[in-house]
Amino acid sequence: MANITEVKETIKKLPDEDFNAFADWFEKLEEKRWDKELGKDIAEGKLDDLANEAINEYKTGKCTEL
User: Fold this and answer.
1) Which of 9, 29, 40, 60 has a CA-to-CA distance to 22 between 20 and 30 Å?
2) pTM of the model
3) Core vs surface per residue 4-41: b (16+ CB within 10 A) or e
4) Stronger pLDDT, 2 or 23, i.e. the higher one
5) What gap in Å lies between CA 58 and CA 38, rounded to an integer?
6) How far is CA 46 from CA 1, 13, 31, 32, 63, in A?
7) Residue 15, in any domain of the structure
8) Position 8 in a domain
9) Residue 23 lies in a domain
10) Which residue range is the domain that position 45 belongs to?
């Protein structure tokens, strides 16, 4: 298996078309990982305080429509 330095050097050498395909793939992978982590944080209640704060601010009129 290649180390991170080898991976970076390989990516730098990719032709534009391959680099763009890699970048698209990597972006989708990153989004999936972020979604998974967010789902885990929600399930564990890590965002409850923020959600409650936002709801309270809405109820007290501290929010404006965009």
Assistant:
1) 40
2) 0.69
3) eeeeeeeeeeeeeeeeeeeeeeeeeeeeeeeeeeeeee
4) 23
5) 23
6) 36, 41, 19, 19, 23
7) no
8) no
9) no
10) 34-66
Backbone angles phi, psi at 15, to 5 degrees: -65, 155
Scanning the chain, the segments in alpha helix (DSSP H) are 4-12, 16-43, 48-59
Gap between the Cα atoms of 59 and 62, Å rounded: 8
Look at the chain and report how many structural domains it folds into. 1
Token output for 60: 């007290």
Q: pLDDT digits over 29-52, tens only?
A: 999 999 999 999 999 999 999 999
Nearest-angstrom CA–CA distance, 11 and 46: 36
Amino acid type, 63: C
What's the CA gap between 39 and 32, in Å, rounded?
Answer: 10
CA distance 26 to 56: 38
Query: How far apart (Å, rounded) are the C-alpha atoms in residues 38 and 32?
Result: 10
